[in-house]
Amino acid sequence: MSHVLAIAGRELRSIFATPVAYVLIAVYMLFAGFVFFASLGMFLVQLEQIQAMGMMQLLERWNLQDIVIAQSFSTFAIFLAFVVPLLAMRAFAEERATGSIELLLTSPVSSTEIVLGKYLAIAALLLLVTVLTGLYPLLLFAYGDPELWQTLSGLQTLLLYALSLAALCCFISALTRSQIVAGLVGVALALILLLIPFAAESSQSETMRGVLRWLGSSTHYEPGLTGEVRSEDLAYFGLVILASLSMARAAVDSLRWR
Amino acid sequence: MIKADALTKRYGGLTAIRGVSFEIAKGEVVGFLGPNGAGKTTTMRILTGYLPPSEGSAVVGGFDLARDPSAAKRVTGYLPETPPLYPEMRVCDYVRYVATLHDVPRAQRGAKVERAIHACGLDAVADRVIRTLSKGFRQRVGLAQAIVHEPAVLILDEPTSGLDPIQIAEIRELIRRLATEEGRTVILSTHILAEVEAICQRVLLIAYGQLRVDARLDALREQGSLEQVFVREVQAAASRDADAAAATAAAAAVVEAEP
User: Which tens digits make up the pLDDT trace of B174-233?
Assistant: First the structure.
């Protein structure tokens, strides 16, 4: 365990030693803020229109939670598909490029410890990103009356989604010396996972549709963003994390065999 | 302390080393010589547990690298050709990190880190960020990380390459001190023959993947200067390798000629 913590601590410090993480998080927060306040503005305008037209039934369903928070979170998830791979791309690729991986591989440290250390550092970073994301809905609690548990479930789902992407990108990063390649492949895979459910609709076979829908990441984070925590979604993210980290471990093991 | 038994390493179709065997006793300081690409780095990487051999076995500090790699790694200090530094870290943080990776108990960590930093003459720069250090100092940081866990075996891959003459003299002096203290067993690879004469008692010469010379330095001196021995052995190995290549090519031609 002390190895894992040492590796994670070093990784975190070096993440914040370069401007990359700061810039990425700042850009993400900027876009997220823009989306959040744009959707809040739209909500208010539409609220006035609905009130003017006297459509009471619609008004009942027109709440901050579903319209502003859940919908912005859904957009944040798309931003994460770009941000997480760029945060995780350096994990192994950088050490392979500079040769410092030789230190890890000639130390009495197992491949599992190396992978867990690297992953723990990124996980801590993503926890920070999630907390920062939570600041936007927090503002609404000062002025309105959103659902606390639904908001927390949304944040938890965003974090889970980000963690699953990070695990996948850790694996990709262990396959190459080039951070750019790792980042680009990571973004591409993240987008493919987002888009698979749309492709599913055009499929002829019912089983195929089911499989494609299940594979897609959006299928599994959308319910959580509206406060619906389903065990099958938790299982999906858990499975992606576990499978990716085992593959990353195999990739690190294979570095010892070249 | 170190035992290499018929080590062979193939990368795909290329054979980097072939049947390399030697034994090094405790406290010996051995110079590992050979032209570029002869297989020095490959052999050292096998001994540090970075690469597994294709055939053969290696024992370091009494631990078989195939069976108990962690124990072997714990008693080995390794300075690769490019020191594995993290440029954004401070010297003391970096050495402490390596100490943790090598299972130095927490209670002793501070003292051992300080000792390694002091032994390598890094006291004045302990709080500096590695990126800002000169090449000579970075090499010292590389040495400090190799000795921080007080290993019984020290493996140094070209520790003086790319340094200026004054830095070379300093690093050489440092290695000699680290070697004689506590009776460490040291293997260092180099191109500089004078370095071997200055530091080592014994010479291993590898050429074209094969061990050509394994002798004490004073015994070698009777055969002429180290340079003469080096050139003679490398040329002999080259012609043998060329013969072998020609024989292989001829054999291949015969095979191809057959329908």
Answer: 888 888 777 889 999 988 888 888 889 899 999 888 898 898 888 888 887 788 888 888
- The beta-carbon neighbor of A10 closest among B11, B52, B97 is B97
Q: Using CA atoms, how far apart are residues B218 and B206, in angstroms rounded to an integer? A: 19
> Domain residues of chain B, as ranges?
2-75+153-257, 82-150
Q: Which residues of A touch B102 (CB under 8 A)?
A: 107-108
Predicted TM-score (pTM) of this structure: 0.89
pLDDT in tens, A96-129: 999 999 999 999 999 999 999 999 999 999 999 9
Average pLDDT, chain A: 91
Mutate to test the interface with A, among B63, B91, B100 (most CBs of A within 10 A): B100
Strand, coil or helix: B159: coil
- Section A11-28 average pLDDT: 93
- Give the right CATH number for B2-75+153-257 from 3.40.50.12780, 1.10.3720.10, 3.30.70.141, 3.40.50.300: 3.40.50.300
Distance to chain A for B74, nearest Cα, Å: 6
What the block records as the tokens of A78 is 């798309």
What sign results for the dihedral spanned by CA atoms B116, B141, A94, A25?
Answer: positive
A258 vs chain B: nearest CA distance in angstroms? 7
What is the extent of the structural domain holding A114?
2-255
**Cβ-contact B178, B147 below 8 angstroms:** yes
Candidates A100, A109, A258; nearest CB to B86: A100
Whether residues A13 and B100 touch (CB distance < 8 A) is answered with: no
- Per-residue pLDDT reduced to its tens digit, B99-118: 999 999 999 999 999 999 99
How many residue pairs from chains A and B have C-beta atoms closer than 8 A?
67
| Residue B80 near chain A (CB below 8 Å) | yes
Q: In what order do the strands lie in the sheet with B185-189?
A: B76-79, B153-157, B185-189, B29-33, B202-207, B210-216
Structural domains counted in chain A: 1
